[in-house]
Amino acid sequence: MTNDPLRDAARAMRDIRDRCVWTQGIDHRDLVPYLIEESAELVDAVEAGTRADLREELGDVLWQVLFHAEIASRDVDDPFDIDDVARGLTEKMVRRHPHVFAGETARTPEEVLVLWNAAKALEKHERRSVLDGVSSHMPSLALAQKVLGKAAQVGVSSDGSDTAPLSEAQLGDELLALVATAKAQGFDAERALRERVRQLEDDIRRAELKAPPAT
């Protein structure tokens, strides 16, 4: 072991890949369910766990990253390793924080977001829609929030009714009540929201045909 715990973890992953017959048979697709599970457990630790839980679950998610990188390093056609992943991440974060690394000024979170989006737009210039890069595998509520943000960028509004300001707890109560209503009426709340989000995505794409896409 060295004084570099991250390097030790990467080395342990490599040794396990070399000598563990179960690990040797795993590919990127096989790992997806484990990544989803470990990510969910990390969320639980953040929201309701102890500091020890948080440290452990962060480690489990890091192991998934190391696992994917080790698999990728052995690809015959296009290999990359954890150093390439870390290098690419560092370069991207430096580009997206010009107020930290390049002399730009951002005094408010809103100004930071403007700089972030500008840098991201340069990186993703090949994208033709604000929906490009939005994963359909996100949980439906998270996907709805994401797509609503994209809709605002192209001037598309949802048909949601205005409500008085709610606390987060009150919002949770209302969401749970809606799910209870769906269950009582035999509806699938998850499917209902996803189908509504798809309609909103269609509205966004129609709006983009009439004007250049926002970034």
Automatic annotation (TrEMBL):
Keywords: Hydrolase. Residues 28-101 form the NTP pyrophosphohydrolase MazG-like domain. Pfam families: MazG. InterPro entries: MazG-like_dom, NTP-PPase_MazG-like_N, NTP_PyrPHydrolase_MazG. GO terms for molecular function: ITP diphosphatase activity. The keyword Transmembrane helix does not apply. This is XTP/dITP diphosphohydrolase.
